[in-house]
Design goal:
It is built from 9 helices and no strands.
Length: about 180
Amino acid sequence: MIRRYYGFVRLKASSYFLIGGEAEDLIQEGLVGLYKAVRDYRTDRESSFRNFAELCITRQIITAVKTATRNKHTPLNSYVSFSQTPAASGEEGEPTMADVLPGSTVHDPVNQVISTEEIRSLVDCITSVLSDLESNVLSLYLDGRSYEDVAERLECDTKTVDNALQRVKRKVGMHLDSRAVPL
């Protein structure tokens, strides 16, 4: 089948242009369309195989052309490697992008101590400043429960739950402001 329809596929492919590709790429796409035609052709339909194959080949080629013009993969195809030197000269001793860019501060002991202290301070604030209702509402809300579910569990109105959460936000916000911690 491929030998029989190869000339036809080449003729179809010659009518199209693939950005960033060669004529052989379009021929290959056309052959994929031919394969799909062979796979999907049904003899109980009124169409001849030649017409069905022409339709499949054309659609496959058009899809390839549209995909190439969509620029979907442009970021991947035009990336800058962090492991090569900026000039890609490969000279020894020249720093790479990975060497030049600052590293992550996640494992910095200073940041870990500060984060731990801030969390401890926030927990102290929550336990000392919030009322029992506010603490219970916050706990249930942080578990992912809806206002209605929290209200049902605490046997109160949803408006009471909303008001309690607003007070929690205000109190925690005031605490963070007093410590000059950005939200």
